[in-house]
Amino acid sequence: xxxxxxxxxxxxxxxxxxxxxxxxxxxxxxxxxxxxxxxxxxxxxxxxxxxxxxxxxxxxxxxxxxxxxxxxxxxxxxxxxxxxxxxxxxxxxxxxxxxxxxxxxxxxxxxxxxxxxxxxxxxxxxxxxxxxxxxxxxxxxxxxxxxxxxxxxxxxxxxxxxxxxxxxxxxxxxxxxxxxxxxxxxxxxxxxxxxxxxxxxxxxxxxxxxxxxxxxxxxxxxxxxxxxxxxxxxxxxxxxxxxxxxxxxxxxxxxxxxxxxxxxxxxxxxxxxxxxxxxxxxxxxxxxxxxxxxxxxxxxxxxxxxxxxxxxxxxxxxxxxxxxxxxxxxxxxxxxxxxxxxxxxxxxxxxxxxxxxxxxxxxxxxxxxxxxxxxxxxxxxxxxxxxxxxxxxxxxxxxxxxxxxxxxxxxxxxxxxx
Length: 418
Fold this sequence. Notes:
Blueprint (H helix, E strand, L loop, with lengths): L2 H14 L1 H39 L3 E6 L18 E2 H7 L8 E16 L2 E10 L2 H6 L3 E4 L4 H5 L4 E4 L1 H8 L8 E4 L2 E9 L5 E2 L2 E2 L3 E5 H8 L10 E2 L1 E6 L5 H15 L10 E5 H44 L1 H9 L4 H34 L3 E2 L2 E2 L6 H27 L3 H5 L3
Parallel strand pairs: 4-11, 6-8
Antiparallel strand pairs: 1-13, 1-14, 2-12, 3-4, 3-7, 3-13, 5-8, 6-11, 7-8, 9-10, 15-16
Helix pairs in contact: 1-11, 2-9, 2-11, 2-12, 9-11, 9-12, 11-12
């Protein structure tokens, strides 16, 4: 029997039992829909991480405190007092020491409730300097950014993220208005442009920025082990991506000398390039995506079991038909191919419907807001090919046993069946 004849025979057999075939395909439809929908959300999270860092530029280095006694990534978790200070940042700003430096932006962060009239929101409070705008690309939508004068005089002023300004003041102009942080009054002098995305798990639009000196002395006072006012991180923008490696070595040399770290001791800080941060976050989101796909893949497995079950029932129902075909010359191979073709068609058609369902689910998921922001979904070709290939493979594997059972039937016994 030719392959085309087997295909036609399989289609006729499936169309003769439309309801049963539809219910059998349902497991594959749900499985493929789940795989495409969930993995597209995972890919969207990866794309959002990459986009966030691309907005900052590819030539930024981050210096953060590190606990030399803690292993691996745990060393970067904030424990005790930070090890970096404003003096460290000023030392790194010297172009004679870090030759390719363009901008130095020390900062500290903490969370607090911000209130205005009857509205309140708990967001990240960042103590920054004017260089923050240049180093990390924080354009202003209205008003002005933190100035040198604000830092020098420890002014009680804030710049609001786009989402924070909308939540606190709605359609009103926030400039010149007052907000309260930890019971202290601050005047709004600017609003940041909406950026979307997140950095270190914090929405770029849900932040409140205040002068670093104000943050250190009036909101969240922290000192290093050397007694200096502490900063949690220092962003170093260099002239180009090619200058990053040399700048990282120079930064490490400067800070080791300043912190009086001997040759045998480990650093109490970490120097991380933006590329390394993106790589680490993409690795995490990649594992998350695979995990989602594996969970969704269970639905495909259940769908495959359903196909095997129905194909076994079909073999039993068509035992006499199989006997007649063998009696008129059909070979075991012909019977085997026909039943495998039926299983493959069930999974292929179900997979096709599942692709449409997965695309629809991903579009709906991209409209759901979580924490004031949406995660874009990315339906890529490789996800679609993976989902449909796995569904057909599961269909074929599920159909092998029923097909072999049908092919091995004795034609005389089959003719007497029923």
